[in-house]
Amino acid sequence: MAQFSNEGEYLKSLECRAALPEGFRSAVAQLRFTASEMGLETPMSMRLATVVADEPLSSYAGVFTRNRFPGTPVIIARERLQGSRVQALLINNKVANVGAPNGAADAETVLAGLGRQLGIAPEHLLPASTGVIGWSLPVAEMSAAIPELCEGLQRTSLLPVAQAIMTTDAFAKLRSVELGNGRVVAIAKGAGMIEPNMATMLAFFFTDLSIPRSTLQALLRETCDLSFNRISVDGDQSTSDMALMMASGRHAAPPESELRAAMIELGCGLAEDIVRNGEGTGHVMRVSVEQARDESEAVILGKAVINSPLVKAAIYGNDPNVGRIFAALGDCAGTNDIELDPGRLSIFIAGEQVLADGRFRLDAAKERRLSEYLKRNAQSTQALGYPEHDRSVEITVSCGVGAFRAEVLGSDLSYEYVRENADYRS
Amino acid sequence: MAQFSNEGEYLKSLECRAALPEGFRSAVAQLRFTASEMGLETPMSMRLATVVADEPLSSYAGVFTRNRFPGTPVIIARERLQGSRVQALLINNKVANVGAPNGAADAETVLAGLGRQLGIAPEHLLPASTGVIGWSLPVAEMSAAIPELCEGLQRTSLLPVAQAIMTTDAFAKLRSVELGNGRVVAIAKGAGMIEPNMATMLAFFFTDLSIPRSTLQALLRETCDLSFNRISVDGDQSTSDMALMMASGRHAAPPESELRAAMIELGCGLAEDIVRNGEGTGHVMRVSVEQARDESEAVILGKAVINSPLVKAAIYGNDPNVGRIFAALGDCAGTNDIELDPGRLSIFIAGEQVLADGRFRLDAAKERRLSEYLKRNAQSTQALGYPEHDRSVEITVSCGVGAFRAEVLGSDLSYEYVRENADYRS
């Protein structure tokens, strides 16, 4: 991704790749409501977005949170994906519709309104919601906004939807790739609460390629495992995260290997966008765990580093604190019973070896160089509306016990993270 | 514990319970050194502390970190506890002696000096260290300080040792209990990096009761499991934590049940001191998980709540954000494959029900009351040098699936935590 210096430049670059695949229309609308049952009398705004296929599609896929208390939209969407057709999504921000007293009935009422307006059977409609947990959907206001939403349907760009689904996101996330005569366009939202299994993350993939449903499901599952499930902003996994994909089948698909590579590229790109956009993220950390006994252990060890509050706070402070990385790895290995021999462990930051065979290899000059490196790769912790750059802090852990590797992405821990999450609802 | 309004009052209260059990002496000393291999030319101060029994003891016990990369003192102490006698401890702060190039030899050199001075065989001496990981012990300066240290040995108070082992601790931690004709006195240090298995935590228990070594080991293990292993400041488990106990055997011990209750009371008291004193702690959270299927699941679920950055940040912001507690529990249950039925789950804050059978029970008045409750139970995030009060934020989770319960203690997540941990070494 290029370097941007303002939001306009960034949005222009997204617009260039935002064309909807053939066979889809999309629209967004805004509405006002008050969460008066919570005593909040100040009206708030909610955005509604929809993506509608020209006919009921037989090829679609979904991957959902493993949170044991999934939100109502997750429950409904998971069930509907067992059916034979899907035609449209309805997405709202602001209220996650989790644990609300009449959550399921509320969601169905709103979806039924959309179905009537568009002439689509309700069972072909999927809901997706993100926002505060526990609040009820403003059903009347949402239903009233449906006609206006449908009037706005257009075929040119998915960017308005990428913008509509943002919550605390600082910038819209959209990636696309051309494949044969068709394309895949994907959007995502997510900023805090990002840990394995795509926490408070919504991602939507659309393509006009012709791909069998079972292939689509396998590809989406693998893409999520290799991208959204390898990032962490704060280790929290939400009740609402989901990734959905719809294929309109207008063009022949390329060989599966090509499709797979493209999907993973899209997923990893969006995953990186999410981390870079993490609430108050001052550095993106890319932790590569090499020479592990197997890939899942490599992922677990990498996540232990990017989820350690002490490591995260040190990186935020531009402190190349190797001791905390070392301690986090040992803690994780002890807790998860992973064989890890300190005598065979090496750690590198920015390619410089800072631990060899379990012994620290640090000196004053190296510490200074690494601190300067961290400063150079920092980004503003303020929401700029665009990614400042695409640089990361590169940490490599070499276990010396096997031949497997994995890479995970995480954010540091800044004052701004705390502020944003202490005041989210106020 | 009473309420204190300044450090002097608090120290006076500790002094009243700080008398050493019979058969022990203690001393502290201070020294200056420079971490010149790290390019830090400003001299730093380190404190040394020792507790010496009048003769080699046959009754002692130790519990250690499960971090797979334990520090040198952990490795040495763990090995020596396999022997037949222990007579003294030597404790230093500032340098943890973890991963340092000649860590073992350095520790042995310093211990040998203490042994020569006191006429104790080196294998009867245990080291304990806390501080920065990766740095080497300043062996010359520590050895030079040994004679002065030994000159200061006294029998009156353990409080100077409790103060000497502090690192980022805001106040000294000391608890004691009278039992029969003897007593148990315990001290601890630890502020950040506190998670299961007593991370960067040192705890030392001394008694003049006569207790068989095997009983002592079992009691210390159980005490640690029920106290230090049920608290969390930041989820990080250090390479250096240990709890040690020595018994001089001067008085007959009471029945084991009485001893057990006393030990657990001491351990839980110190554990609460540690959380209250956590780096930047603005609230202590006490999470009680009831009606769980078994005790270990109750502990895991409770820890998921106190370790969720989103829950912690909300509590810091005096926001009774039930949604985040609910999401953290569901995340934990999904990840750890714990059976948890949202329809049977209830959550209470300060005794008020906020979730019943998986549905949120919140209204504006209740939210206001709970926010006020959080404000009332906040403490200063600045290090005052004494605990302001002993109030906690009481959260109860009722799983509705079994008959087991457990309680865990954790701290919130404040700006000050980040500041302290971003700048620790500077």
Descriptive account of the structure:
2 copies of one chain form a homodimer. Chain A is of the alpha+beta class and 426 residues long. Chain A has 2 domains: 7-276, L-amino peptidase D-ALA esterase/amidase; 284-422, Roll (Ubiquitin-like (UB roll)), CATH 3.10.20.340. Chain A has 12 helices and 16 strands. A 7-stranded mixed sheet of chain A has the order 9-16-11-15-12-13-14. In chain A, strands 3-10-8-7-6 form a 5-stranded mixed sheet, sandwiched between helices. In chain A, strand 13 and strand 14 (359-360) form a beta hairpin. In chain A, 59% of the residues are buried. Chains A and B meet through helix 9, helix 10, strand 14, helix 11 and helix 12 of A and helix 9, helix 10, strand 14, helix 11 and helix 12 of B.
Please state the oligomeric state of the protein chains shown: homodimer
Shape of chain A: globular
CATH architecture of the largest domain in chain A: 4-Layer Sandwich
Helix content of chain A: 25-40%
Strand content of chain A: 25-35%
Q: Largest sheet of chain A, order of strands side by side?
A: 9-16-11-15-12-13-14
Give the total of domains of chain A: 2
Summing up helix and strand content along with how strands pair, one would put the structural category of chain A as: alpha+beta
How do the helices and strands follow one another from N- to C-terminus of chain A? HEEEHEHEHHEEEHEEHEHHHEEEHEEH
